[in-house]
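Hi F.,

I've been meaning to write this up properly since the lab meeting, where we talked about keeping a consistent format for the predictions we share between groups. The idea is simple: the sequence comes first, exactly as it goes in, then the structure tokens exactly as they come out, then a line or two of notes. No screenshots and no reformatting. I'm using this chain as the first example so we have something concrete to point to.
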Amino acid sequence: MTFSRELHRSMRQLRELHPADRKHSGAKRTYGRVNSRNIRRFHGSAARDPQLRDIMKSILMKPIILLVALCSLVSAQRGRGDRPPGADMNSFPRPIEMHDTVWIEEMTQLEIRDSLKAGKTSAIVMIGGMEDNGPYVIVSQHNSIGHAMCDMIARKVGNTLCGPVIGMAPGNPDKSPNPGSVVLSPETFKGNVSDIASSLRGQGFRHIFFMVDHGSDQKPAVEAIDALNQKWKGEGATAYYVKEFYNYTELEKYEADVLGVHEKTDGFHDDYYTASISLAIDPETLRMPERIKAKKTMLNGQDMKYAQALEDGRKMMQYRLDAACARHSASVEAMTRGRKQAATALVECWFAPA
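Output, unedited:
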């Protein structure tokens, strides 16, 4: 019906366009009835006359536009049908069991909500960086280590989740020294620390712990944490800088005194005590398959292909874990007596406000 009305309207336009031309102005006689024969004749005239061609385009496009709009409306309605109208995920019952993860980014909204209700109001935010790590190790090694260590610490402490890893260190973005050394300006870096902590606090986390695995992260991270604690004073939330976690000097001493490893540098920004940890996490990050094939497995006088390197990496991960929570047993015991006491024990155990 719409097409018929459009065609009749076009016939009137046609007569107005050619009042003196009987061949066209006789449209009432020539095209008066809307049938397949007259439509074909109308097409033939349109091919010869630009004005008629424009009218024909208008007639054909309107039904197409209407069809597209209708399809879009139907698609939108179907999309909204995936969620019951008015469903509130803050009160919606969780329909399945909790997934086994401590990572907020790997949880559903309902799992995070229910974890907070169950008392998991502490969060750890690891800070790493991307930099030159020699010819064999990926540039994001600090992020990989931070991710693995956060998982271990959160599970050991209990009632703690892992926030997103801040994967870029502070620096000068205009003068990034090496390919892959992607950095943030100090202001942007501190903004990341502040915004992530504030976002976690706004969701109900009360104790937010920052740990760094890259030297240049420390100073701006502490500055951002100090500013947060000034802002949050008396509001029931605290940010902490865990200085014990960045303990590579002590780790190097443990490597020499306990593991009996004495490195002789190859001249790369790479070392055994870090590389062995990465080996224990994921050999691919050290390109071990390629290195074994090329017979390039030596690092600072130590052969990374032997099982001893893997075992040393696991021991050093455990050492860092223990160093971060020397009094873990006390904190766990305190947790059973209430969340307030547990938080105090956590701070005494391995967290120091910046």
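Notes:
The CA atoms of residues 12 and 264 lie 95 Å apart.
Confidence is low (pLDDT under 50) at residues 20-32, 327-336, 347-354.

If this format works for you, I'll send the rest the same way.

G.
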